Amino acid sequence: MTVIEALVDLQEVDGRIREMELELKDLPRRKALETARLSGVSADLQAAKAGQEYAEQRIRGYEEEAKALADKIQQLKTTQMGLKTNKEYQDFSIQIDLVTHELTAAENNQIAALDELPAAQARVKDAQSRYDAEKGGVDAFCAEIDGRMAEVSSALAEAQKERAEKVKAVTDPKFLLYYERLRTKRWPVVAALTHDGVCDGCHLVQPPSVGQLADANAKNGAEGKPQSIVACTMCGRILYRD
Ligand SMILES: [Zn+2]
Q1: What separation in Å is there between the alpha carbon of 112 and the centre of ligand 1?
Q2: pLDDT at 48
Q3: Domains recognised in the chain with CATH numbers
Q4: Do 96 and 71 touch, CB atoms closer than 8 A?
């Protein structure tokens, strides 16, 4: 195996490693997006619950008001019975009338508030079932992501072992150093020089000398002689010809 063939081999493993690393970065992000969506649904549910609570409070408020007014009427009537003069009696009758009007208003308000309750309850029920459905979906999705993370992590560990072997096969340290340096900036690092003399990485036409060097390299490789680094004049990728 020539040094360039060994590099292409290494590059193949590195390509898989890159993809797995990208996926491992992306998976938690997807999980966070799903969880954020659920918290939106949860906020809807909280708002619906608060709405129901408010409707119930209003009902209780009018109920208490009506009870207090009814007690007051009872009290006024009791006092009225013990009154001596007609004038006093009539004054109390007026007061009792007024409070009775207030009582009627409170009772009407209570009925109106009661009318609003079923809609508020329906909103809670709706929001709750939407939340339950979403939660089930999100939980399943997150479990799936966790499973995928474990799977990719273990495949990545395997690929790293494989990489260590492939590195050993690159016998010329000069090539390896060049490859490792360029790997973080350019991908792929090793590219074919097409028959039209174009770098397959950046698609720039190379001067004829590059083609000649690449051909000489291929010949040297076939004869078991050392190869030299032939790089693209534009992007610096290592170029080779079959
Ligand atoms: Zn190039």
Answers
A1: 78
A2: 97
A3: 12-168 (1.10.287.1490), 176-240 (no CATH)
A4: no
Q: How far is the CA of 24 from the centre of ligand 1 (A)?
A: 29
Closest CA to 104 of 70, 54, 60, 149: 70
In angstroms, rounded to a whole number, what is the distance separating the alpha carbons of residues 59 and 114?
6
Around ion ligand 1, which residues have CB less than 5 A away?
199, 201-202, 232, 234-235, 237
**CA distances for 160 relative to 20, 90, 150, 184, angstroms:** 11, 100, 15, 16
Centre of ligand 1 to C-alpha 202, Å, is 4
How close is the Cα of 42 to the center of ligand 1, in Å? 52
Q: For the CA atoms of 175, 178, 180, 184, what is the dihedral angle to 10 degrees?
A: -150
For the stretch 161-211, pLDDT in tens is: 999 999 999 999 999 999 999 999 999 999 999 999 999 999 999 999 999
pLDDT over 90 (residue 213): yes
Query: What is the distance in A from the centroid of ligand 1 to the CA of 117?
Result: 71
The angle that helices 3-81 and 86-169 make with each other, rounded to 10 degrees, is 170
Centre of ligand 1 to C-alpha 161, Å, is 30
Output the six-digit token pair for 25. 């970065």
